[in-house]
Inverse folding.
C-alpha cells in the first residue's frame, strides 16, 4: 500500500510556473508539497534533507538542466517532467519518467499524471486510485492594489493581456494584476475558458455570439486570431 500522502518536490526556475503547480497540487488531498525549488542545486539540497516520492521537474533551466538533474539522482525517485517544449519528450521517457506535461498545465492533466504515478507504485492486487480532490474550487485570488482580491470564475467575462499585466473583465468591474495570460489560463477550469488570441481568454458561458473572426460578450468584441481559429471553432461548434 502507498502512504497516505505523496511527498512532492517542485523544481522550476520560473516563479509563475511554480505558483501554478502549487495551486493545482494543493487541491489534491493525497499530495504533500515538501519543497518548491528554483534550481537544480536547491533541489539537490532538498533531496538530502527530506523524503521525496515524486518530483515535478522543469527541463529547460539555467545551469543544470532538468534532464541532467534527472540523470544524476536515485532512479527510485519518480519524475513528472514539466516543460513548454515537445522536443524533449523522447529523452524524458527514456529516463523512465512517469509522465511529460506540456505548459500551460491544467489541473485535469496533473490529475492524470499523478494517477499514473499511483498506478505504477501500487501493488497490482487491490490496485485502486487514491487520488481525491478538495472541494471543487470556484474562484482564485489575485494581487491588485496591494491586496488579494477574490475572483469568482462565474463572474469573469474575458481576460486581456497587456504587457506584463492582465485585465480581468467582469460585469461590474475590471481587476488588473501582474500575471501572464498563460499563467492565469492554467489556473482556470479548462472546460469553461477558451483562448482566442495570444492576448485574450474568454469565458465560454458568457459568449453571446461569435464568428470565425471575433467573439461578442456584452458590448465587447474579442478577436479570434488566425493561430487560434481552428481550436476556437472546434470547441464552440463541437
Amino acid at each position: 500500500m502507498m502512504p497516505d500522502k505523496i511527498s512532492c518536490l517542485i523544481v522550476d526556475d520560473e516563479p509563475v510556473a511554480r505558483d501554478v503547480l502549487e495551486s493545482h497540487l494543493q487541491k489534491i488531498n493525497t499530495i504533500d508539497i515538501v519543497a518548491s525549488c528554483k534550481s537544480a542545486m536547491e533541489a539537490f539540497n532538498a533531496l538530502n534533507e527530506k523524503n521525496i516520492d515524486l518530483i515535478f521537474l522543469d527541463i529547460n533551466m539555467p545551469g543544470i538542466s532538468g534532464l541532467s538533474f534527472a540523470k544524476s539522482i536515485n532512479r527510485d525517485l519518480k519524475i513528472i517532467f514539466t516543460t513548454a517544449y515537445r522536443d524533449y519528450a523522447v529523452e524524458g521517457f527514456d529516463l523512465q519518467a512517469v509522465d511529460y506535461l506540456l505548459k500551460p498545465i491544467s489541473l485535469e492533466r496533473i490529475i492524470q499524471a499523478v494517477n499514473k504515478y499511483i498506478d505504477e507504485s501500487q501493488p497490482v492486487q487491490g490496485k485502486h486510485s487514491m487520488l481525491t480532490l478538495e472541494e471543487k474550487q470556484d474562484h482564485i485570488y489575485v494581487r491588485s492594489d496591494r491586496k488579494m482580491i477574490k475572483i469568482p470564475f462565474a463572474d469573469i467575462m474575458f481576460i486581456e493581456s497587456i504587457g506584463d499585466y492582465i485585465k480581468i473583465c467582469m460585469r461590474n468591474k475590471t481587476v488588473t494584476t501582474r500575471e501572464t495570460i498563460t499563467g492565469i489560463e492554467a489556473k482556470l477550469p479548462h472546460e469553461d475558458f477558451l483562448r482566442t488570441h495570444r492576448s485574450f481568454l474568454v469565458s465560454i458561458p458568457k459568449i453571446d455570439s461569435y464568428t470565425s473572426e471575433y467573439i461578442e460578450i456584452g458590448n465587447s468584441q474579442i478577436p479570434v486570431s488566425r493561430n487560434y481559429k481552428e481550436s476556437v471553432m472546434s470547441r464552440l461548434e463541437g
User: Anything to note?
Assistant: The chain has a mean pLDDT of 86. The first strand starts at residue 6 and ends at 11. Residues 80 and 99 are 5 Å apart (CA to CA).
